[in-house]
Structure formats: C-alpha cells, structure tokens
Amino acid sequence: MVNLIFVGPQGSGKGTQAKIIAKKLGIAHISTGDLLRASTGKLKKLADSYIHKGNLVPSKVIIEILKQRIKNPDCKNGSILDGFPRTLEQAEDLEKIAKTDLILEINISDKTAIKRLKGRWNCKKCNIAYNIVTCPKPKKIDVCDVCGLKLHQREDDVNEDAIKKRLKIYHEDTKPMLKKYPYVKINGEQSIEKITRDILDELEKLKK
Ligand code: AMP
User: What's the whole-model pTM score?
Assistant: First the structure.
C-alpha cells in the first residue's frame, strides 16, 4: 500500500506523471479536477461555475467526492492524489481520512506554465493530454492519434484570467500548505521520461 500526492502548478505535468506512475505501481490515479469535470447535474453546474473562472471549488465539496472515490476497489494498493490537497485546510482534512507516504512537488516556472497551458489539447474519449508547444504533440493538430476524434481545449486553459488566477492560488494557497509537510521537489522542466525516472528514484528511497 502506497499513498502519494503529486503537487505542482498547472501545466507541470503532474497529471501525465501520475498516470504513468500509477500504472507502473498498480495503484489508482485520482485527479480531483478530472472527477469534477466528469461530474453531472447540480454538482457539475456548481463545479463549472468555479472551474471556468479559475477559482477553487469549495473544499467541503471536494473532500466528499474524494471520500467516495477512495472507497473504490482500485485504491486497495494505494493511490496518487493529483490536484489534492491544494490548501492547508484540505491537507488537514486528508490527514483524517488517509495516510500519505510521500508528497512530490513537480516544479516549473510561471512562464513555462502559461506556455504549456495554452498548448494543451485533450481527448475527452481517451483521456489523453496532448501539447502542441511541448509534447506529446498529436500527429494532426486537433485530432486524437488513438480514436481520431476532435481534440478540445479546457475552458480554463483558454481564459487568460483563469490561468493567472490558478497560478496565483498555487503560490498563495498551495505553496504555503507544502511548507507544513515534508516533500520532495522534482524539476518539471525536463523531458517526460526524465521526470518519471526522478520520481521512481524518489520512490526507491522510500523502500530503504
Ligand atoms: P486541475 O484539473 O487539477 O487543473 O483542476 C481544475 C480545476 O478544478 C481547478 O482549477 C479547480 O477549480 C478545481 N479543483 C480541482 N481540484 C481541486 C481541489 N483540490 N480543491 C478545489 N478545487 C479543485
């Protein structure tokens, strides 16, 4: 059983790495952003009203979704939390429901974050994230390599104010939260493969 938390500014690649590492370790990848985007009805309407403006969805809502999600059988060997906790309040709530073995911060500059967010295109069907300014680039500009459907950009990635607000929240709420816990920094301005290796090296140290 291993429970990890991946933290990082928007565009740091934490989602990409969480997917890769979760698959390698046979543990669940839990992205609170993905859970909110996949929600329906009233919850979806409420979540979108915050997400589209780049604001945080109220912690009370997130913690309830998370509590349900970690009951799923795919979490029996552990999980990677991607995008949670984002505030000290959420970190304290998490302490009450699960233990954490390691917190990793994947770090990039704001300049890199803005550049990457603007190039991000996703396939809703395959849940693949492409990036036309970095990589992986799709073979055709707005088409998924796997299923051939049209790619789309997240509303909060095309809205400049939402990008700025999300980065501001990262610096003002998430970074101070990190200061309260031991965590390992990973340089996010490297290739996807090198970041994966750095993360796996840190995980090896856990076994010693
Ligand atoms: P992400 O996919 O992690 O970039 O999250 C997209 C958006 O979902 C964020 O900008 C927030 O509006 C919302 N969100 C995701 N995770 C959280 C969280 N832990 N607390 C509050 N809001 C969240």
Answer: 0.94
